[in-house]
Amino acid sequence: MHVEGFCPRYLHAVELVGRRWTGAILRALLGGPARYHEILAVIPDLSDRMLSERLRELESEGIVLRSVIPETPVRVEYSLTDKGRALEQAIVAIARWAECWVEAPPAAATQPPAAKITAARRGAPATRRRAR
To answer: What are the distances in angstroms from CA 93 to CA 4, 6, 27, 83, 97?
Structure first.
């Protein structure tokens, strides 16, 4: 089968959802509204800068809603819009495919963030140290 060209909408969608960390952020938000630090805590090795950038992109595309709750202190939550929720079947399908066809990474790479922080405090190399 020869394909002459892809639909521009398809290309934009694949580029948007296929960007690094976007799928993980979307999957994290499928569980419901979450605060910035909660998203950061569940996605290993995601940097502050990258999370901020991806959330802004997803918000500008109408996939993620940023809600400011006027409390003291002010609370900000991120949630999926209807447009974002419509991606649920695709995300679940990718997760199922991964369980069947993708080999799990070595155990050290899948350590929970709290374990990485504890290891760093004991003198082990940190994974999120900033260059000064």
So the answer is: 27, 22, 11, 17, 6
Rounded-to-integer distance, Cα 86 and Cα 83, Å: 5
Global confidence as pTM: 0.76
30: tokens are: 């499928």
**Average pLDDT per run of 10 along the chain, which is 132 residues long?**
78 94 97 97 95 98 97 95 97 94 76 46 43 40
Amino acid, single-letter form, for residue 93: A
Domain boundaries, the chain: 8-121
Other Cβ atoms closer than 10 A to 26: 21
Spatial distance between the Cα atoms of 41 and 30, rounded to a whole number of angstroms: 15
8-121 folds as Arc Repressor Mutant, subunit A (1.10.10)
